[in-house]
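Design request, tokens follow.
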């Protein structure tokens, strides 16, 4: 397995003080906290009166805590115990008898423990005469609710998707996999953002070598900010210069659960609905979650359609350029005459013509994505129609080229995974350039390079073309075809080296005898 290239640590300023230990002087603690949070208008310092002249200090960040829970489970019990026990320290009474109804209450003795907790959404409670503080887990705030995924729409299947809360996402996964074998390991990445990253796996299925490697790669990350799972993906992948993705991302709990059940791992990042899974193979990007919910015959036919259109998306423009430039004798006479007539008034060679149309198509697609939904669809559709028709009438491009580019664009949309479709779209340009320079020999050169690169590519030690090369008979049942579930009795051997049996009883279901009525 290829080892991860460790990045050098990045130096960042941190909050440090010689008075790290919490003092029994409440005013001194308040001054230290105010010094840390200077010019922070969203930090709330709430003074709570206790019996006599004593008081407590509650500090939290507005907007990322549940204020109702703070009032109900912290302030009200605190004031109630103060009134009912005037001769006893409220702080000691609450901590010893556990009168807070919060699920998570811990103590801290240093400010280095208090600061990260407050920044992560906890409330801290200081009391006069006590050299420790209570950390109250009231993390909340406004987050998007569970909604249907927009990037992985299905006709048949669950409608729930991950959101930006890592706690909610883990809960959605727990609903799918109700097993004590499901393990979660927490990491904190980013010296400034302190982003919570969670590694999730099934301990009785995952390869121990893969688990050890992914833990090491996550622990070796040194950067100041992690705002999305894409940061993590680029830092832990095997080949950062490869155009092909080596981790899959999904915002569907059922997809992530199915990957874990095959012996893979998942990486949850707080603040994003996209969960990374690995190791991956190339064939995985040609599969959709709906393939396993519909009948296997329909899923197999659709999967074949995807592979055909994958080849069209990669080769069709380059093949057109090569044939019209160097190998005109390969075309039938009638088709050759039709193409020659269409290109008679075109001032550019076929390569330049193809590059112009492909770049214009990619620009229209990008504009349609970035503009508001109500405007984006109209711009992309009208832009393609108007610009294509105007370009043909003006004699800048030929009609066959417009057809080729349109078919290529449609073909790229059939690839289920967006990151894999981007790779194909990007590789299309060097293929066209080589075809324009060397004809079909250029396409052969690009194909040899592509196959060689895919054969040498690894994802956490797993061959990228596993199933085909090296040949694994059990995995072939879910590569080019999707066999029935009662045929896929074992898990893929590339991922699950232990506990491979998935279906205990492996047999073809027997239909009822002909003419016999089923009760």
């Amino acid at each position: 397995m290829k080892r991860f290239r460790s990045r050098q640590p990045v130096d960042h300023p941190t909050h440090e003080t010689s008075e790290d230990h919490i003092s029994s002087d409440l005013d001194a603690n308040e001054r230290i906290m105010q010094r840390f949070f200077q010019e922070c208008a969203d930090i709330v310092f709430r003074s709570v009166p206790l019996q006599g002249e004593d008081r407590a200090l509650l500090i939290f960040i507005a907007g990322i805590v549940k204020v109702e829970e703070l009032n109900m489970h912290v302030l009200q019990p605190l004031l109630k115990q103060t009134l009912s026990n005037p001769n006893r320290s409220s702080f000691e009474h609450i901590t010893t008898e556990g009168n807070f109804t919060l699920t998570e209450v811990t103590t801290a003795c240093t400010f280095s423990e208090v600061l990260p907790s407050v920044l992560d959404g906890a409330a801290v409670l200081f009391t006069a005469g006590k050299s420790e503080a209570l950390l109250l887990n009231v993390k909340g705030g406004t987050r998007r609710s569970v909604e249907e995924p927009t990037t992985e729409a299905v006709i048949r299947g669950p409608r729930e998707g991950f959101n930006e809360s890592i706690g909610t996402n883990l809960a959605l996964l727990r609903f799918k996999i109700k097993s004590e074998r499901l393990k979660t390991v927490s990491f904190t990445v980013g010296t400034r953002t302190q982003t919570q990253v969670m590694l999730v796996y099934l301990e009785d299925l995952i390869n121990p070598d893969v688990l050890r490697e992914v833990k090491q790669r996550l622990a070796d990350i040194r950067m100041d900010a992690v705002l999305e799972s894409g940061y993590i993906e680029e830092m832990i992948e095997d080949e950062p210069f490869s155009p092909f993705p080596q981790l899959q991302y999904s915002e569907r709990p059922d997809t992530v659960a199915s990957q874990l059940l095959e012996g893979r791992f998942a990486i949850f990042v707080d603040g994003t609905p996209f969960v990374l899974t690995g190791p991956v193979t190339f064939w995985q990007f040609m599969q959709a979650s709906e393939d396993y919910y519909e009948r296997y015959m329909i899923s197999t036919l659709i999967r074949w359609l995807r592979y055909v259109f994958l080849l069209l998306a990669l080769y069709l423009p380059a093949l057109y350029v090569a044939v019209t430039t160097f190998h005109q004798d390969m075309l039938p006479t009638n088709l050759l005459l039709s193409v020659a007539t269409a290109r008679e008034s075109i001032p550019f060679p076929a390569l330049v013509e193809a590059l112009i149309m492909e770049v214009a198509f990619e620009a229209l697609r990008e504009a349609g994505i970035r503009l508001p939904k109500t405007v984006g669809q109209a711009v992309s559709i009208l832009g393609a129609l108007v610009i294509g028709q105007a370009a043909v009438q003006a004699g800048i491009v030929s009609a066959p080229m417009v057809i080729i580019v349109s078919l290529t664009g449609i073909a790229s949309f059939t690839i289920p995974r967006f990151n894999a479709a981007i790779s194909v779209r990007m590789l299309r340009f060097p293929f066209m350039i080589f075809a324009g320079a060397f004809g079909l020999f250029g396409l052969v050169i690009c194909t040899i390079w592509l196959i060689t690169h895919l054969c040498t590519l690894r994802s956490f030690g797993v061959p990228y073309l596993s199933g085909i090369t090296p040949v694994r008979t059990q995995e072939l049942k879910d590569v080019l075809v999707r066999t029935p579930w009662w045929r896929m009795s074992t898990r893929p051997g590339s991922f699950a080296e232990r506990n491979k049996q998935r279906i205990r009883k492996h047999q073809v279901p027997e239909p009822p005898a002909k003419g016999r009525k089923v009760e």
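Comment from the thread starter after seeing the answer: thanks! Residues 26-137 form one domain.
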